[in-house]
Design goal:
CATH topology of chain A: Rossmann fold
Helix content of chain B: 25-40%
Number of strands of chain B: 11
Oligomer: heterodimer
Number of helices of chain B: 10
Order of helices and strands of chain B: EEEHEEEHEHHHHHEHEHEEH
Structural class of chain A: alpha/beta
CATH architecture of chain A: 3-Layer(aba) Sandwich
Largest sheet of chain A: 6 strands, mixed
Structural class of chain B: alpha/beta
Shape of chain B: globular
Distance between the termini of chain B: 32 Å
Number of domains of chain A: 1
Strand content of chain B: 15-25%
Strand order of the largest sheet of chain A: 6-7-8-3-9-10
Number of strands of chain A: 10
Number of helices of chain A: 9
Largest sheet of chain B: 6 strands, mixed
Distance between the termini of chain A: 38 Å
CATH class of chain A: Alpha Beta
Shape of chain A: globular
Radius of gyration of chain B: 19 Å
Largest interface: A-B, 35 and 37 residues
Radius of gyration of chain A: 18 Å
CATH superfamily of chain A: P-loop containing nucleotide triphosphate hydrolases
Chain lengths: ~240, ~280
Amino acid sequence: MIEVQHLNVHFGHNQVVHEVSFQVAPGETFGLVGESGSGKSTVLRTIAGLVPGWDGGLAVNGKTLGPKRDRAFFKSVQMVFQDPYGSLHPRQTVDRILAEPLAVHGIPDAETRITRALEEVALPRAARFRYPHQLSGGQRQRVAIARALIANPSVLLLDEPTSALDVSVQAEVLNLLADLREARQLTCILVSHNLAVIGHLCGRLAVMQGGRIVEIVSQAQLRDGTARHPHTRELIALSHELEG
Amino acid sequence: MTEAPLVEIRKLRVDFPNPAGFTQAVRGISFSLGREKLGIVGESGSGKSVTGRALMRLLPGSARVQAEALRFDGIDVLAASERQMRRLRGGRIGLIMQDPKYSLNPVMTVGRQIAEAWLAHNKGGKREAREAALSLLEQVRIRDPLRVLDSYPHEVSGGMGQRVMIAMMLAPNPDMLIADEPTSALDASVQAEILKLIEELVSARGMGLMLISHDLPLVSRFCDRVVVMYAGQVMEELPARDLHRARHAYTRGLLDCMPSLSVPRPRLPTLNRDPAWLEPKR
């Protein structure tokens, strides 16, 4: 479904991603974990077409991606960002925010789709004509998820979707993502610095450090402690320590 | 050490005006703090930050603050003059905020900002201030303090920025630190480092610490006592090491909803908010 081969990304003279390769099968949720500056978000943004200046092979849905993406790509691949405060237009109502992708992709039937999208992310009907600042953080992230899903994509790219939220709201959003992925057979890539969050949703994950993937491990390996790379072990130890 | 607590809060209420009357942000909370580490935990909107700010009288003028007692080291914060408050804020109580990106001045070097904090509460010249800044950067364990001294905030990482914030708050040698979500904008690994640093500095200098956060397990590792807040009231107060024996359903719910690496679950339990938690407590 998603293939990344020998991906290199440069910001000017600075190479921030080195030879990153991984595959994600249809319906799979793949995790990218690492500290800030490890390049995990850059990999995600490169797949989404938000980063110029990369080389290597990228393919989504069997189609090789070039530097420019066509409209069909943006319809099938959608992204949810970390900060729901920053990623929603402050002067647009939820209704307008959700109508935009429909207009862009020429999808008819906006009325029923918007109502359904709000139901799907469990937002009250009353939220439809509110502005982002009138919603709580968790509700805003639900709007961002609804916006990503309204054009009916097959791939969802999630960049730290719960890091800005309270733990209690994080649980609700993680459950919502698990349900939606099940119902819509979504292929997801989830980026987070929180190993427990990644381990909760992802079957397989790549551990990144300094722009390189140091190890790809399965959920089971994460739990039974058979991860080999010292950095992976460090992250696991830290996660256990913080759980107390 | 005197027996009187550093901070005494009794029946604190904070209301904010809204078009229909008042929104009650804090509804009659009481606790005291000595030279110890106290965690205040709750979700957003539980009133934990407002409590910290009320103690420094940093709330907007429209807020209505009432209390039977709101004292810092015997000083009545509600009755103190602006002059007294200026000496308290920064001088005796330091406030570390969530995101160094927004709380540092972007057009001033790190060294000058720390020196400014030092100069505001100490007597001395620019040279001394610069030396103090350098020594503070060393104390917050920045590896290359001379380079960081002349850097601008955008040139340092988030973790380093938070260390700079801590150095700045320590400059006047305060008696107490209020850390309001000091690590929420940081990575898991940097989070632990910063909290360890705060904890060590607080213990070494014999300060009081009020650590405000929504992450219950994290707070309990670095504090002596934990106060759990919900909708402007204290639900439960308990020693941090007894956290796993918490009785209140809200505390248990907050603990339970974290994804765990060791105990995988297909679904995370979410909080069932009991309307009874909202009832005014006596």
